[in-house]
UniProtKB/TrEMBL annotation:
GO molecular function annotation: DNA binding
Lineage of source species: Eukaryota, Metazoa, Chordata, Craniata, Vertebrata
Record protein name field: High mobility group protein B3
Domain HMG box residue range list: 16-86, 99-167
Major location category of this protein: nucleus
Keyword annotations of the record: Chromosome, Cytoplasm, Disulfide bond, DNA-binding, Immunity, Innate immunity, Nucleus, Oxidation, Repeat, Transcription, Transcription regulation
Gene3D superfamilies noted in UniProt: High mobility group box domain (1.10.30.10)
DNA-binding region: 16-86, 99-167
InterPro entries for this protein: HMG_box_dom, HMG_box_dom_sf, HMGB
Acidic residues composition bias: residue spans: 188-214
Listed GO biological process terms: innate immune response
Similarity comment: Belongs to the HMGB family.
Length: 214
């Protein structure tokens, strides 16, 4: 747990170090002076902060200017590094051309009924509308739900076909980019069987996902 907390606190190690203010540079200088004068005495941070703050308030603009310059330089460094910094994003990048998952029967019902609820009760929040839709769906008879479920089933079948076409297209594109070495004789049939099994497994997983969604 401690390691996890440390990782969370540490954040992205590639992220540029935050920019320092003129006052932060002044405090850093004060601390270095203190270490040189009293190397044996540890710094009492609360007292040290008060002293630094008091000194900073009494300093003239001319005295502060060198710290302002340091802060400006650090800001320029930070801005420059941030331009080249791209936050690490987890997971695979989604293909915008991939077929979209079909809505469930309940989702189709919500899409149809939501505008009606908003029209009659515009003051309801998003959460309240969702709750009301859930209650309405649960109160429907099986017969009333059937048209939505039938439509969802048709959309699901279309989605499966689209996914199969999309995968085929992906394999064709991939083959164009990186031609596969010709397999040995007698291996062709086995390869085809393996690919078919993989496709079937993927479709089964998608079906399971759909059930979870509903």
């Amino acid at each position: 747990h401690q390691e996890e907390q440390f990782k969370m606190a540490k954040g992205d190690p590639k992220k540029p170090k935050g920019k320092m203010s003129a006052y932060a540079y002044f405090v850093q200088t004060c601390r270095e002076e203190h270490k040189k004068k009293n190397p044996e005495i540890p710094v009492n941070f609360s007292e040290f902060s008060k002293k630094c703050s008091g000194r900073w308030k009494t300093m003239s603009a001319k005295e502060k200017s060198k710290f302002d310059d340091l802060a400006k330089q650090d800001k320029a460094r930070y801005d420059s590094e941030m331009k080249n910094y791209a936050p690490a994003k987890g997971g695979k990048k989604k293909d915008p051309n991939a077929p979209k998952r079909p809505p469930s029967g309940f989702f189709l019902f919500c899409s149809e009924q939501r505008p009606k609820i908003k029209a009659t009760s515009p003051s309801l929040s998003i959460g309240e509308v969702a709750k009301k839709l859930g209650e309405m769906w649960n109160n429907l008879t099986d017969g009333a739900k059937q048209p939505y479920l039938n439509k969802a089933t048709k959309l699901k079948e279309k989605y499966k076909k689209d996914v199969a076409d999309y995968k085929t297209k992906g394999k064709v594109d991939g083959a164009k980019m990186a031609p596969r070495a010709a397999p040995k004789k007698g291996m062709d049939d086995e390869d085809d069987d393996d690919e078919e099994e993989e496709d079937e497994e993927e479709e089964e997983e998608e079906d399971d996902d759909e059930d979870d969604d509903e």
